[in-house]
């Protein structure tokens, strides 16, 4: 009799955990999707206004806009210290800043090629995320490699921007960066999906899990944005 009660308790706990995990994962993807929508809306609003384009992107301030999301990410997004409400505001701020810089993309590429790149990025992201969720293989090694790749791509990108400012031809290097970046952020997507699945536990409480969800949503958001940019580099058609 006691054994049956114990078995029923385990089954109920497992069921509760599965439901909680599903809700947690859905929360992460909902937040990430909201971030993408904020970025898209901001980009559209800025690109539709010559005044806003000149204000944000019409001079040296464009470089400030370009690197502002990284500054907010580095100094203003601390899941281990900040409340979920503050993380929400920081997340929205990062998405808006990305949207301002993305206004250039809407001006530079045709709507058809942007839509094509978006759907390709969505399909690739979904496949990688599903793989990260269902695979039994530990992806920590892949994650380490991918993060190192992202750092390398970032350094090369800075070098390319500086070289381009001095009139150096950088098209070949841009292709290399786009290819390497696509591979690196694909690895980050699969690894981060597995990581957020493994880190979740209902006993940690709603506030802790919410902060974890914001952190995971931001990582996946950045990965998706990067994947989209790199795919657009290859398939985009100039307007």
Report what the structure shows.
With 239 residues, the protein is mainly alpha-helical. The protein has one domain. 85% of the residues lie in helices and 0% in strands. The protein is built from eight helices and no strands. The chain has helices spanning 2-47, 50-57, 61-76, 84-108, 111-134, 140-165, 171-199, 206-235. The radius of gyration is 20 Å and the shape is globular. Mean pLDDT is 88; it is low at 1-12.
Compile the SSE list and pairings:
Blueprint: H1 2-47, H2 50-57, H3 61-76, H4 84-108, H5 111-134, H6 140-165, H7 171-199, H8 206-235
Helix pairs in contact: 1-4, 1-8, 3-4, 4-8, 5-7, 5-8, 6-7, 7-8
Helix content: over 70%
Form type: globular
Count all strands and give the number: 0
Mean pLDDT: 88
Low-confidence stretches: 1-12
- Element order: H for helix, E for strand: HHHHHHHH
Short recap of the structure:
The chain is mostly helical. The protein has helices at residues 2-47, 50-57, 61-76, 84-108, 111-134, 140-165, 171-199, 206-235.
